[in-house]
Structures are given as C-alpha cells and as structure tokens.
Amino acid sequence: MSNIGFRIRPDFQRPDRRLIEAFEGLPVANIADCMNRISCIAPPIRPFNKAKLLGCALTVRSTGGDNLLFHKALDLAKPGDVIVVADGGTDRRSCCGEIMVQYAISKGLAGFVVDACIRDSDAIAELDFPVYARGVTPNGPYKNGPGEINFPVSLCGIVICPGDILIGDGDGVAVVKPEDAGELAAVTRKVFEKETKFLEDIAAGRGLNRSWVDRMLTEKGCELV
C-alpha cells in the first residue's frame, strides 16, 4: 500500500495551452454564471494584489501551517502552473512569503492559491504575480510534513484536481475541468460581450431593457397590492 497522506506524484497531465488561453480576459463572475454559480472558491480566500490568475493547478495537501510539500511543489512546478495548497484553513501560521513568490516568478509559474495565510504581504501586494490566500500572519511555517502532491484537494468546498484550469481576478477564483473548458470559454465570451454592450448602452444614455423584472415577478406569482 502507498503511504497515504505522505506521497508525491511528480507529474500530471496538463491541458492544452489553448484551452487555458481561451479564458484570457474573461471575468470570473461571467465564468461563474455560466457554471450555474457553484464552481468558484469562496471567501475568505481572496487576492492579495491586482495580478490576474490564469493557469493549471498543481495541487498540494498539507496541514497545520507546514510547507515542506509546498517547497517540493515549487521544485516540481513548470511554467504556467498554479500551485494550489489545501492547508486546512489554518490562520496561525503562514505557508509562504516573498522569497517563495520570487522563486515562483523566476520559474514562470502562474500563481499561488492557498487555504492558509501568507506573510510579506506588503511586498506581495506590489508584485505582478497572483497570490490568493486566507489571511496574513508573520508567524512562519513548520517543515515536517506530512502531505501530498498532485492528488485531489478541497478548498472551501470546491474540489480541485491536478490539471484543472484556474481563472482569478478581484472577485475570486473559478475552477474549470479541462473537458469543459472549450465550450465554457465560448459561452462565457458571448455573455461577456453581451454585458459589455449593456455597459456601453448605459454610458451612452440608452438605458436597459428592464421588462424581464416584471415578467419574472408575474411568473413567480408576486402579487401587486
């Protein structure tokens, strides 16, 4: 039997880069709407700078503010990977800081999404490298293990598998299965273009068609008194 809870898969199947790039420039809110509003990582995980996230997941499971497996993931990661760390939501210790972020940048990685805290937040806020985390604490991590790399993990109720496509902006992070990506990106882009036209109409003073509000109220049996 393998050593469940303390094991590493050195590599995984990454999606075609074109599937990832299909989400370039699309708002997470539009992607979420096109996935029935149930496929995004919820607060309290949030962005710590303005950098946009787009890449595929390399997953890490750790525990109690320990980043030994996170460090190994840094060594295994390839350009375009987003390291996703499920650390049980601990807020007592940080699992990464500026040095790890700078090393990730040097390797061409695409971001960090961690269900834990970070430190060096002032420096990270100025970097063009997306970091999503639960909070901030100066208390550093342990390096003892156990943990796993490249097995499914769960962040805020969302299951993430190695190779899943992650898209993030100021609203949060959407998680997309590669097999759904092509169709989803096309549908989302149409929604984005439609909403862009709405904003143009508002700015030009043309207003919006609001007839759907009364229609839905009528369909749901709302009584006007």
Topology:
Blueprint: E1 6-8, H1 17-21, H2 28-33, E2 40-41, E3 46-47, E4 53-61, H3 68-76, E5 81-86, H4 98-106, E6 111-115, E7 117-118, H5 121-125, E8 131-133, E9 135-136, E10 147-149, E11 153-155, E12 158-160, E13 165-169, E14 172-176, H6 178-203, H7 211-219
Parallel strand pairs: 1-10, 4-5, 5-6, 6-8, 7-9
Antiparallel strand pairs: 2-14, 3-8, 4-10, 4-13, 11-12, 13-14
Structural key phrases:
ten-stranded mixed beta sheet, single chain, alpha/beta, 31% helix
Order of helices and strands: EHHEEEHEHEEHEEEEEEEHH
Query: What's the overall geometry?
Result: elongated
The main β sheet shows up as: 10 strands, mixed
Distance between the termini: 69 Å
Percent of residues in helices comes to 25-40%
Q: What Rg do the Cα atoms give?
A: 20 Å
The number of helical segments is 7
Which stretches are low in confidence, meaning pLDDT under 50 for 5 or more residues running? Answer: none
Helix/strand class: alpha/beta
Mean pLDDT: 96
β-sheet strand percentage: 15-25%
Q: How many DSSP-defined strands?
A: 14
Provide a descriptive summary of the structure in words:
The protein has 225 residues and is α/β, with parallel strands linked by helices. It is built from 7 helices and 14 strands. Strands 1, 2, 3, 4, 5, 6, 8, 10, 13 and 14 form a 10-stranded mixed β-sheet that branches. The longest helix has 26 residues. It starts with 5 loop residues before the first strand and ends in a 6-residue tail after the last helix.
